[in-house]
Design goal:
alpha/beta, Beta-carbonic Anhydrase, Chain A, 5-stranded mixed β-sheet, about 210 residues
């Protein structure tokens, strides 16, 4: 089993390779590796990321088959199915690092801010369920001076939304709380820059 600190170091190094254009992914996609994984898996990290097509976690962290257990949903929100997926991987595969990966210029966060400022009656119930998940993390920002600068507002909102998702995973699941307290599970937040390709982790190893 790989510890959370080892897994985090692996992701940092992989992102550095990705940014530098020195990817090592080809050997990780070999037929032999695929055959090996047919017998089982032991992902080094769980990544809860956004569905945005520009942020594929395996590429961003320069990882291959079997390395990451990836959960993608618009706005990297935490709903019961996402919590259950994290619980499943952490318990079943012994994965000890969870990364909530937001990204710059997140469309779901921007849509939420726009909805809070100019509500639309035609929004579908399904889309509203995503907006409603993001709303609590960003609506307070609209009561600050940030509301006058949309670019800065979105940047702060993306981070606030990641922070809420991290907190939800750390404190909103009895299973995960027990794994954090007793088994070395760690949940951290991060943001991917669409412009630079760099992933910035918000906090260090905590909770185990």
């Amino acid at each position: 089993m790989i510890s959370a600190s080892e897994a985090l170091a692996r992701l940092r190094e992989g992102n550095q390779r990705f940014v530098a254009g020195t990817s090592s992914r080809e050997p990780l996609l070999s037929h032999a590796r695929r055959a090996e994984l047919a017998l089982g898996q032991a992902p080094c990290a769980i990544v809860l990321g956004c569905s945005d097509s520009r942020v594929p976690a395996e590429f961003v962290f320069d990882q291959g088959f079997g390395d990451l257990f990836v959960i993608r949903v618009a706005g990297n929100i935490v709903a019961p199915s996402q919590v259950g997926s994290v619980e499943f991987a952490a318990e079943r595969y012994g994965t000890r690092l969870v990364v909530v990966l937001g990204h710059s210029q997140c469309g779901a966060v921007l849509a939420t801010l726009e909805e809070l400022q100019r509500p639309t009656a035609s929004q579908s119930r399904n889309l509203r369920s995503i907006v409603d998940r993001i709303r609590p993390s960003v609506e307070g920002l609209l009561r600050t001076e940030l509301r006058h600068d949309m670019e800065t507002l979105v940047r702060h909102a993306v981070r606030a939304n990641v922070g809420v998702s991290v907190s939800h995973l750390r404190h909103g699941s009895e299973v995960l709380e027990q794994l954090i307290e007793h088994e070395g599970l760690v949940v951290v937040g991060a943001e991917y820059s669409l412009a630079t390709g760099v992933v910035e982790f918000f906090d260090g190893i905590e909770g185990g």
